[in-house]
Amino acid sequence: MTGNRYDYIIAGGGCAGLSLLMRMLQQDQFRNKSILLIDPQHKNTNDKTWCFWEKEPDIFEPVVFHSWCKAGVHSDTGSVIFDLAPYRYKMIRSIDFYEYVHTRAAAHAGVSALQATVTDMHQLDNGTVNVQTDQGAFYADLVFNSTPLQAQPVKQTQMPRLLQHFKGWLIETETGCFDAETATLMDFRVSQEQGTTFVYVLPVSEKQALVEYTVFSETVLPGHVYDERIESYLRNNLGIQNRKILHEEAGVIPMNNDPYNNSQSSIIHIGTAGGQVKASTGYAFRFIQKKTKAIVEALVRNEPVTQLKEPGKQKAIFYDNILLRVLKQHPQLGSIVFSRIFSRNPPARILRFLDNESSLADDLQIMCSVQAGLFTRAAFQELMARM
């Protein structure tokens, strides 16, 4: 580093920015490089929870708060409980994640952190990137951006647009009510009047679980409604009358595949800004890990990071948009669609499909699980929208 110039700047200190930083710190090639991490907040609270599945432990295994070997999906037509092998479903609390990366970054002399808001960034004629903040200007040969800045949709498209909105309580009960080895991924045995609606139950012990009420719809609900629905689910579905709320979380995730501005040769978008949130599910953690791992491997090989391929991405966008069209046009059928997929396919096939790693044979088997006519019409609409 010379003055306010760095080898790399990471704009945004959330999941994507810190994942990239952690992977860089594990490579000897970056030990003598200067890296500036910019974020408007010093993240030291448990502001979110990330869940994902994987076969083998990755670099954040030390901060996995809990994991499950079995999972269940429930609806009015029945329940299915399945073994996730060779996968495990895992939960990471953001506070543990933040502390883990910041502690390791503090041990590297070349890493600096700046609490500031990025207001602009642009590439100069010589390829250097100028990053403007409310604390001054900084320069780098390569900038990784996970902020909304510079990563706005190119245009509003005819693609389906929904929101995934949710609220969750981490509760503690007086007696053992939960199976800590089994996660409930979707329980549709709640009213579907607001759109595709389900409850997510992640037990971390016999007496503690994260219970999250989730809706796919075009508008969010008044805040008190989420609390009322969680309370109703606990009483009527789980038979829990007495509980203590240990923690609350809430969020809204856009479910769309709007095309974003492409990364420039020296400004690389990552995280939500880089399209690493799967539109049909809201899952992002594993996609962020894949992308940041690929970036670091390319840098180590001295290859351009703007040319990185994301296998299966375009196919997945097409499939996501078809599903979103069905959910938007027929919200009352969401529970039937997901229940059929989980009851008629082995879990490994479903997880490959959701990870954008499925084969054509996998895809055909998944498609045969759902209402063919409904999805064929949605596929035709999607093709017409692209013309």
TrEMBL record:
Matching InterPro entries: FAD/NAD-bd_sf
Gene3D superfamilies: FAD/NAD(P)-binding domain
Domain of life: Bacteria
UniProt-recorded name of the protein: Lycopene beta-cyclase
Species in which this protein is naturally found: Sediminibacterium ginsengisoli
Organism placement in taxonomy: Bacteria, Pseudomonadati, Bacteroidota, Chitinophagia, Chitinophagales
